[in-house]
Amino acid sequence: MEPIGQDRPRRLPWVRPFLVGLGTFFVGLGIVGIFIPVLPTTPFFLLAAACYARSSDRTYHWLLNHRWFGKYIRDYREGRGIPRRAKGLSIGMLWTTVLVSLLVLPHPLLVKVLLLAIALGVTIYLLSLPTSPGGSEGGLHADPRASSKHLDKGRGG
Fold this sequence. Notes:
By secondary structure, the chain is mainly α. The chain has helices at 15-35, 42-53, 57-64, 70-77, 84-104, 109-128.
């Protein structure tokens, strides 16, 4: 029986450190994306937040309240969306990677169809997300205290 108040189901002992490590990897990619124009930032911070939310309250709150990185996640969670540039780069990189994979690597027909279906699904999903006003990445010079909504509202775990 689990302790009262514990909101996460029991998992294999390696899952928590794996998710923390994966989240940290995504934070690293997001940081690189701030400085390299062809690498999107927001999707990596969102992936990191998802990993941290399921593995470590401490790292999840650190990321959400981070002076520079937290804005990306707060904007998405509060319905302000993903910057137009991040959407465009994400979709562009997705299709470039899928097409190069299809053209260069030998795949059975079923794998090619699945890759195209997944890319189409992700593209539709990204296009369905709200686009933040201004269309720029923002974040580095934004004031993280500008948000008036509570960060943990509706957080799943």
